[in-house]
Write a structure and sequence with these properties.
It is built from 6 helices and 4 strands; from the N terminus they run βααββαααβα. By secondary structure, it is of the alpha+beta class. The longest helix has 10 residues.
Length: 127
Amino acid sequence: MVSDTVTTRVCFELQVKPELLDDYIARHSPVRSEMLAEIAASGRRNYSLFLAPGGRLIGYYETDDDQAAQAYLAASEIASRWEAEMAPYFVGIEGRPDQAATPLVEIFNLHDQLAGAGGAGAGTDAR
């Protein structure tokens, strides 16, 4: 069966205050189970955060409906509490970090380009 659902890939950037990096990492090691459940219930999956030196944070997730996922989390009491706790860790954020993150534009995806080329070159290097 072929699905009509299109997966949306979302990538975003935030800046963690350098003096709070250790505590920020500790707060995510692990994230509270109730918040993990809310992220999953929103429809977000394959969610990762990457931290670069100096506090540059890159986040990535996939979803079938990003607007619905955002609306679900915006209405969630659990997510609201978590975001309020996380807000002080970020530079230049007013309000909820999940709503203030800078979205990044995807310019390349290997899977999509291979599919568009009829699968030619599958398994080859993308250099």
